[in-house]
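for the record, two folds in this file. i put them one after another cuz i was lazy. first one right below, seq on top, structure tokens after. the second one comes after a little note so u can tell where it starts
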Amino acid sequence: MNAWWAGLASRERVILIAGMLVLAVLLIWLAIIEPLADGRNSLRREVAALSADHDWMQQVAPEVRRRASSQAGAGAIGAGNGSVLTLVEVSANASGMRSAMTRVQPEGQGARLWFDSVSFDALVRWLAELETRQNLRISQLAVDAGAAPGLVSARVLVEPR
């Protein structure tokens, strides 16, 4: 390698050194500086979006507090404005029942739910939780045996108390 280098003219050495410097700068730029700049821009956009979300939440917070206090004062935890659907969805997600729920349909002030291949024990526990913790009433329940032991298909009508 030294013999090859020594065999080059000084002009060729300068050109090779300059090319290596340009290549090194280009590699540093592409491998380090550009990804950092992209990440920084991405974080700036995310901060701007989250700031806008925060501002919106601050604007609607008094309305949310007013509605929460009016519902709590009226004793209608599960009544009105689709809150039965919300309570059912949140509770189903928390208990893991959402994956077995195949259909949810509003009906009057309540909701009609369909389940396929759900554990009977888990379904009964979840329905009991809806009645005790969410202050909802199970007004209709139809259960059919499933293909495997312990699994059922069910149709449930949940209404506010």
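(here's the note) second protein begins now
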Amino acid sequence: MSNLAPLNHLITRFQEQTPIRASSLIITLYGDAIEPHGGTVWLGSLINLLEPIGINERLIRTSIFRLTKEGWLTAEKVGRRSYYSLTGTGRRRFEKAFKRVYSPSQPAWDGAWTLVLLSQLEAGKRKAVREELEWQGFGVMAPNLLGCPRADRADLVATLHDLEAGDDSIVFETHTQEVLASKAMRAQVRESWRIDELGQQYSEFIQLFRPLWQGLKEQPLLDAQDCFLARTLLIHEYRRLLLRDPQLPDELLPGDWEGRAARQLCRNLYRLVFAKAEEWLNAALETADGPLPDVSESFYKRFGGLA
């Protein structure tokens, strides 16, 4: 265990989840740490790396097998060793999910909305389309009507096509509004996206990770393994929060929105630990050619720059 009580608390909290979310944590690790180093590692070194978080070898092997079966990972045998990397599909999924995590800021909003009317779809397909669009940031504005203030038109069209719902869905795009967020609009947003519930989850994230940030700042010398564990659990929890966050424009959010403070805390803590965490990764992980390759240049652009 670590000498840092807040870090031990986070590790214990992860271990007490039922069931333990090993597959999700492995995806976090690949996206955050392994992909920038070329994307491929020896399974044995991965097992050793995750052991301090309390994930045993059997659970890791089971999770890796499941992720391979689901198309996230692919294996290559070199002698008796297996090396795993993200598949092309897995990499695209990761890029889409993690782009939100590391982006320095959101683009400005011009007040326009994208609306999708689903009333012409049969009930089963309507439910599937609604769930997928909600994952992409749409909210239910009225029965069978979903809206998003910052939709990607290409993603929307592709989603409707993939779900065979393009011909029976009606898409509208509104013009820019002079008043971006009226009182009625803010009330609608609070209702359609369950903003209060998400805000509470961000508040809990802050309560979990602020003591860790303070504890690490007080250390005269940062421990490399502690920094790796802190970084991995930080991004794991923050990524899970962002999957529920529609990333609404600031104009539509409460003035005391906890998501802003959570993002600043995540950025500050990541900048504090990333370099020492890299030392631990370089020492612990192996590829078929030996040590990990250097990180890609894009890695240092995370959170607006890792100085």
